Protein: Peptide deformylase
Organism: Artemisia annua
Amino acid sequence: MEIIHQLSHPAPVARKHSKLTRTRHFHPLIQCQYKPIVHFIHKNKPRSSSATGPVRAGWFLGLGDKKKNVVEMPEIVKAGDPVLHEPAREVRPEEIGSERVQKIIDDMVKVMRGAPGVGLAAPQIGIPLKIIVLEDTEEYISYAPKEETKAQDRRPFDLLVIVNPTLQKKGNKSALFFEGCLSVDGFRGMVERFLDVEVTGFDRYGQPIKITASGWQARILQHECDHLEGTLYVDKMIKRTFRTVENLQLPLANGCPKLGVK
Ligand SMILES: [Zn+2]
């Protein structure tokens, strides 16, 4: 899941960092230095430098230097690739500790942080396994307007790795907010999500875990768990709210439900 605030206020951020986005050291990620480990993705397509390069990085000033030495990372799979539209399979208990699964988890964390995003599911790097990672930080949140993060009940939480997550709603309260997805670059749509959820599963060491979440963290969990069923937010959104990132601030069309907690 993309960091929503990235595009809530695209213009001022872009202006503020417009100089820096053109400098060479601001090409930290997802450019040609990457050797994707997911070979079937975009095999014949030249790597694009548009949305994933300086434009994306520009608003996230300060991490360019830190991340520029990253040399190998899987690409983010985009909508249309069947892996995003089919259910993933469970990780077998004996697989969790394997070198392969541990590498997949490490890659997922790297890709999520590199994007940067607040959540990622394994199918988004082309791996049809039930694994999700998520994380939200003070820093990410500080970029968004306070009134927005307050309405969204968005609070920081440490990195979570969940293998074979099972999500259950707690109560019937829900909220409507715009969501984005790293696999549907450049767009947003309003999605209704439960406010409170509980997720059970296993951590990366195979230990059972249970997460009780509310607000924005609950939304991220629902978004990422949906990925494991082959569901993108566009499959669930209120269709008439779909828009480009540039149009995020435009008013909702007549007849659309209001943003916020229902
Ligand atoms: Zn997503």
